[in-house]
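Re: zinc ion structure - here you go.
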Amino acid sequence: MEDIISRTKKLSTFLREKVNSLQLKHCLLCLESGGSAHICTACSTDLTPPKHPCSRCGVSRIASDAVPCGRCLRQPPHFDASTSAFDYIFPMNHIIGQLKYGDKRYWARALAQAALPAFQQAYAHISAPILIPVPMHKSKQRKRGFNQAELLARSLARYANAKYSNKLCRRIKASPPQTGLNRKSRRSNVKNGFEASSKLPQQPLIIIDDVVTTGSTVDELARTLKQAGALEVYVFSIARRSMD
Ligand SMILES: [Zn+2]
Ligand SMILES: [Zn+2]
């Protein structure tokens, strides 16, 4: 009996490794084989970066402008800068939906790999940063089984050779989802929703999230972290969704 169990275990490990190696050789989007990246070069061209982003908050604008957007000038955000790798349009919205709601966790690694060039372009000058995922309330995490921002931040940290921590802040309010709320309601929905560690390291922190829309959530988290003593707080998201 024991022998059968151990053989079954061995076989399952063998199959898992086989599947992993196969996945590496096939693009997750078109299933084309041959490349070493999770998303092939041809499919990568369908993932478009946000156009003319504001240098501070990362919002897309009609034309490029060296000056931050009007909203940032009127009321600067608490974070020092926010950047997103891609626009939240097809197929990116579909991929992120699969990761979050379809339990396709393998997308986290693929997205982190695809977003790495944008991350490095934005934050290569930041010395010894710590990547921190936007925390999920424990009731929600229990229900979903994972926090996609954690998976993304951990993978991105590995690719970028940076530090990762999910111990520096936590979500203390189980706020309803931001989807469908306007800018003002989004802000009040997340107000005082986070708590930061009393022993924050003095290194720059980069908040990682899957999607940033108005930036209310990451701004509130940045406010909490700065209030707790963080000196520099940046934001990086895989995708940027426009409000309209
Ligand atoms: Zn492909
Ligand atoms: Zn702005």
